[in-house]
């Protein structure tokens, strides 16, 4: 697995040129306690640049449709099936553009897709390692051939990103993988970033995206709310947002800095450290039970019908 | 060896086959419900989960996980709770209760496993649980899944002595009658088949002492595994810190789930015993039930104290008493368990079958509501998401529960499961 992802990375780095020079010394993702790994790949979505053309949605479905068995979605107003009109992220839609209207003059587009967390809950909870975070690129990927479809990733994700194909007999979980399995291999970028006519979506290393976002905030402070969404949320995400409206009005949750997976794993690891506690429990119980059984023997020999309280 | 002979002899003496008609009216009602449920399961596998269920991307876990798995396995903890009492706390006079408790546990867990296979979207990949490279030890779900599978196997082995002793005692009368009636019709030779049956009987005689020798280690495994996975059922929701209401989201979830399954376990053992005594027209096991009922208040007191202490510590007590939607369900769960426990504090109530029944119902409902609160009612994935189970979804759960009761009713009439009645000697002619 490590070798494969490294090969992918090198190939990718070669393709992407200057922005993605391989950095072997930093290649291994730090442990979760080390803070965000800014060498990972991500995207910066600038809502103020987005014109809502939805070319990204079309490109995403075109590129990933076969890989994820994505269908075109029919809206109720559209009996002739003229549009692909998803209402939300669904089992057929990995990214979506929405328009939020505060007032006739105040509005903003917003793009939803996987946040590619630094410490993803979905990866932490998946029982069969079907959600995996690439050690080098940081891409959170879904392995459909391992997935049992338990949907624990959906329960765990604070952003409600993974979607399930409810209407299929052979369903999958669907979520953005930064085109890791499709477009990225041959083009060194994600399909949505590639097709975006206004560069509202930037693809690159988190480090560069953060620098760019900070630059925009200092150069045009009036244009933005002074908040890079994803910089610190739940331990940081590789998908970052800039917007003119508070993030909550764009339908993204306000979140704490700590990753929920840190909390749950700490408790689970405390209980099951080295599997000592369960083995000790079993040993102790065996000892007690066998001792009880031996004590029982003399009584048992002349066991009357009267039960007795010891 | 004497130790193991002890268990063996006890099991022969203590349990008996309940001799009654199998095809009762309730059998047919339960069978109908079972068949409806299984037909809907077929629909689910042909047209997808969305065809029968109201689950959605906001509420990816619905009634199947919440009831069949999270709550059903707690209700199936009778075997666990009684085993602790008998083998660890050495109260052997509860031993007569154990087989029916183990049998209901076996069904509870087996059918929770079945529900999971209905619920998961890609069950054909479940073999990944047995492939070490796919193991994901950070996942509470991984731990729950392996433990539940292991425990179901353990329960089946624990129930095996009942089957074996039945095999040893039977003389295949009904099989003989059946074969005689259809002699030659299916190309069956009565004698050859009976010889095979006899071989099976010999095998049962041979294997029983060997099983008895290791049984205690299996039984103790059957106490260790639920301790692990019942707490992990609580750990499952630790991750949902942004979705589960703060009344229920706490680091104490594993501990609360563990204690919760214990008091549900004892209460359900009381209920099972009272209901089967009533349904099968047998005398009540009053002495044992009074004893069991004196244990639950201790457990519920610890449970309620941990819960309240934790709420105070996290500054959520005001939230709990705010009387909004969540507070209402919290207070209901709390009130059910507390009221049942308070009634049980009085010795007189513990000796009354009526009060034992009422309090066990209160405590089981309260304990189960807690699990519903954690998995469903207190779970809020964000604006715009709503979930209430569809009729088809409910009927699948009803079908699975009906199958559980149906199989219990049939098996107690085939195998020595229920406690032996003293003083009411049954006719010895075995009509198999």
Brief rundown of the structure:
The complex is a heterodimer of chains A (310) and B (432). Chain A is 33% helix and 12% strand.
Tell me what the structure shows.
The complex is a heterodimer of chains A (310) and B (432). In chain A, strand 2 (96-101) and strand 3 form a beta hairpin. The N and C termini of chain A lie far apart (59 Å). Chain A is globular, with a radius of gyration of 25 Å. Chain A is built from nine helices and nine strands. With 310 residues, chain A is of the alpha+beta class. Chain A has a three-stranded mixed sheet. Chain B has 15 helices and two strands. Chain B has helices at residues 2-14, 25-47, 63-75, 78-88, 98-119, 140-169, 173-181, 190-235, 253-279, 286-313, 317-320, 325-344, 347-350, 353-377, 391-411; strands at 15-16, 418-419. A two-stranded antiparallel sheet of chain B has the order 1-2. The longest helix of chain B is centred in the middle third of the chain and has 46 residues, at 190-235. The relative contact order of chain B is 0.18.
């Amino acid at each position: 697995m490590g070798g494969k992802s490294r090969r992918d990375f090198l190939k990718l780095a070669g393709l992407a040129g200057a922005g993605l020079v391989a950095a072997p010394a930093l290649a291994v993702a730090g442990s979760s306690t080390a803070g965000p790994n800014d060498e990972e790949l991500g995207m910066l979505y600038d809502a103020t640049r987005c014109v809502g053309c939805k070319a990204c949605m079309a490109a995403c479905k075109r590129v990933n449709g076969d890989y994820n068995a994505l269908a075109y979605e029919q809206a109720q107003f559209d009996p002739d099936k003229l549009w692909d009109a998803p209402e939300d992220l669904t089992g057929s839609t990995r990214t979506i553009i929405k328009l939020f209207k505060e007032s006739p003059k105040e509005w903003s587009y917003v793009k939803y897709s996987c946040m590619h967390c630094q410490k993803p809950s979905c990866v932490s909870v998946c029982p069969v390692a079907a959600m995996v975070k690439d050690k080098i690129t940081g891409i959170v990927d879904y392995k459909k051939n391992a997935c049992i479809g338990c949907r624990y990733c959906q329960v765990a994700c604070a952003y409600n990103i993974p979607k399930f194909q409810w209407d299929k007999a052979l369903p999958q979980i669907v979520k953005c993988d930064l085109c890791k399995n499709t477009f990225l291999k041959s083009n060194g970028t994600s399909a949505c970033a590639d097709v975006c006519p206004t560069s509202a979506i930037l693809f690159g290393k988190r480090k560069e995206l953060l620098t760019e976002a900070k630059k925009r905030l200092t150069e045009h402070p009036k244009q933005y709310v002074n908040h890079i969404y994803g910089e610190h949320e739940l331990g940081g995400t590789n998908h970052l947002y800039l917007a003119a409206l508070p993030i909550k009005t764009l339908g993204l949750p306000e979140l704490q800095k700590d990753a929920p997976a840190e909390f749950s794993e700490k408790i689970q690891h405390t209980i099951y450290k080295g599997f000592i506690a369960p083995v000790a429990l079993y040993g102790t119980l065996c000892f007690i039970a066998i001792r009880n059984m031996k004590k029982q023997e003399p009584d048992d020999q002349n066991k009357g019908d009267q039960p007795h309280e010891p | 060896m004497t130790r193991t002979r002890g268990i063996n002899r006890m099991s022969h003496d203590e349990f008996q086959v309940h001799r009654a008609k199998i095809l009762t009216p309730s059998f047919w009602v339960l069978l109908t419900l079972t068949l409806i449920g299984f037909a809907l399961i077929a629909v689910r596998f042909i047209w997808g989960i969305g065809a029968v269920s109201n689950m959605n991307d906001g509420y990816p876990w619905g009634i199947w996980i919440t009831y069949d798995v999270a709550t059903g396995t707690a209700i199936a903890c009778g075997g666990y709770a009684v085993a602790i009492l008998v083998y660890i706390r050495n109260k052997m006079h509860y031993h007569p209760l154990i087989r029916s408790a183990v049998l209901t546990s076996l069904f509870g867990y087996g059918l929770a496993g079945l529900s999971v296979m209905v619920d998961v979207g890609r069950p054909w990949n479940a073999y990944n649980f047995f492939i070490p490279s796919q193991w994901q030890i950070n996942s509470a779900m991984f731990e729950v899944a392996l433990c539940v599978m292991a425990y179901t196997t353990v329960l089946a082995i624990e129930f095996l002595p009942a089957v074996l002793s039945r095999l040893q005692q039977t003389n295949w009368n009904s099989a003989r009658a059946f074969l005689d009636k259809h002699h030659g019709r299916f190309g069956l030779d009565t004698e050859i088949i009976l010889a095979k049956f006899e071989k099976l009987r010999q095998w049962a005689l041979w294997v029983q002492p060997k099983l008895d020798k290791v049984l205690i280690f299996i039984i103790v495994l059957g106490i260790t595994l639920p301790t692990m996975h019942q707490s992990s059922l609580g750990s499952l929701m630790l991750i949902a810190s942004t979705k589960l209401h703060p009344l229920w989201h706490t680091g104490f979830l594993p501990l609360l789930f563990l204690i919760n399954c214990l008091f549900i376990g004892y209460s359900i053992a009381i209920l099972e015993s009272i209901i089967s005594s009533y349904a099968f027209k047998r005398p009540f096991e009053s002495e044992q039930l009074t004893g069991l009922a004196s244990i639950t208040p201790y457990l519920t007191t610890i449970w309620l104290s941990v819960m309240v202490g934790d709420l105070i510590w996290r500054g959520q007590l005001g939230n709990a008493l705010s009387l909004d939607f969540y507070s209402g369900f919290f207070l209901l769960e709390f009130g059910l368990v507390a009221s049942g426990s308070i009634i049980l504090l009085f010795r007189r109530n513990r000796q009354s079958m009526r009060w034992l029944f009422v309090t066990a119902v209160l405590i089981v409902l309260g304990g189960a509501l807690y699990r519903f609160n954690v998995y469903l009612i207190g779970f809020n994935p964000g604006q715009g998401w709503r979930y209430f189970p569809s009729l088809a979804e409910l009927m699948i759960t009803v079908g699975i529960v009906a199958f559980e009761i149906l199989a219990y009713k049939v098996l107690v009439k085939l195998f020595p499961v229920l406690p032996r009645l003293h003083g009411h000697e049954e006719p010895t002619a075995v009509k198999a």
